[in-house]
Design goal:
Layout lengths: L1 H15 L3 H7 L4 E6 L1 E2 L5 H5 L3 E2 L1 H14 L1 E2 L13 E7 L8 H9 L3 E5 L1 H4 L6 H9 L12 H4 L14 H7 L5 E5 L12 H15 L5 E6 L11 H7 L6 E3 L13 E2 L11 H24 L5
Parallel strand pairs: 1-5, 2-3, 4-5, 5-6, 6-7, 7-8, 8-9, 9-10
Helix pairs in contact: 1-12, 4-5
């Protein structure tokens, strides 16, 4: 049944993506927020395994395609009232390429970006939890609660597998760049639903304290992994609303209206979206899928 539904959604998206005017109409009166991870000509094994990297030439091509349909906006101003449709670029995890090779492309195209950082990895206090967990415990365990001794157990046996994270020394100069702003992604890349109320607040506050040392801190927060139910829920939202976070971002692809709100949803584009048709198709597919999934979750009284 699930495969049939996906096939139907993909078929609908293929038909709807034929027309440029229909695409514009579907995203009219919406803030389109995109979530990227890395832009690198030399991605790590981890980024290849989970399709988290965009080669520089692909990333720049997607910017030019998006500009055909949207004006690029400043993601640091998303919490202010918005009166027109724009596209906003965000990056998660602080991968080095996004702030080096990626930033060069953003500068060439005069596009602003918001980067959500785990400051424990930027400050090189802790390894990046997700790739470290895979090396320690195998795939598909990184959504679980970290063990107390995982940092001591981790040895970086496969260095080429782990992503390069931007360092404190490198990020100082970048924080002066007017095209860049930063946001909170917790102290390390832990699944918020697996943390206690107290640990979630501590992880946010500890990260925010370090972010405040940088220029261009947005005060925004993005859930690591960012998927509803498994990675955020009503409990975590209630906790985050008690923090200093000015806005809360997920990685669930859904419409963002122009109305003032504290919650934002983000779409994504794969590195295989090389043409205008590819970009339209991927965005419309996510929009169609999320429309039905959102209503399904609402019927179950689940947070989206």
């Amino acid at each position: 049944m699930k495969k049939l539904i996906v096939t139907i959604f993909r078929g609908i998206a293929r038909v709807l993506s034929i027309s440029d005017n229909l695409f514009r109409f579907m995203f009219k009166n919406e803030s389109l927020i995109l979530c990227y991870h890395n832009v690198s000509s030399k991605p790590s094994g981890f980024e290849i395994l989970y399709d988290l990297n965009h080669p520089p030439e692909v990333f720049e091509r997607q910017i030019k395609i998006l500009r055909k349909f949207f004006e690029f906006g400043d993601p640091c101003e998303l919490s202010a009232p918005r009166n027109q449709s724009k596209v906003y670029l965000t990056f998660d995890d602080g991968f080095k390429g996004s702030l080096t090779e990626g930033l060069e492309i953003l500068e060439r195209n005069n596009v602003k970006s918001l980067h959500f950082l785990n400051m424990s990895t930027v400050n090189e206090v802790e390894p990046y939890w997700v790739s470290a967990c895979i090396e320690l415990y195998g795939e598909n365990n990184f959504l679980e609660k970290p063990t107390d001794n995982w940092i001591k157990e981790f040895e970086f046996k496969e260095k080429d597998f782990h992503p390069q994270i931007i360092s404190t020394s490198e990020i100082g100069g970048i924080s002066e760049n007017s095209l860049v702003c930063f946001g909170n992604h917790l102290w390390n890349h832990y699944n918020a639903t697996k943390l206690s109320d107290e640990d979630l607040i501590i992880s946010f506050d500890k990260n925010e304290k370090e972010l405040l040392k940088l220029n261009n801190n947005s005060g925004f927060f993005a859930y690591p992994f960012g998927q509803p139910i498994t990675c955020y829920n009503l409990r975590t939202n209630q906790i985050m609303e008690k923090t200093s976070a000015r806005a809360i971002f997920t990685a669930f692809a859904s419409a963002n209206s122009l109305m003032e709100t504290k919650y934002f949803y983000r779409y994504s584009l794969s590195a295989s979206a090389l043409s205008c048709s590819d970009v339209k198709y991927e965005l419309i597919y996510q929009k169609v899928r999320s429309f039905f999934l959102k209503h399904f979750l609402e019927l179950k009284n689940e947070v989206i």
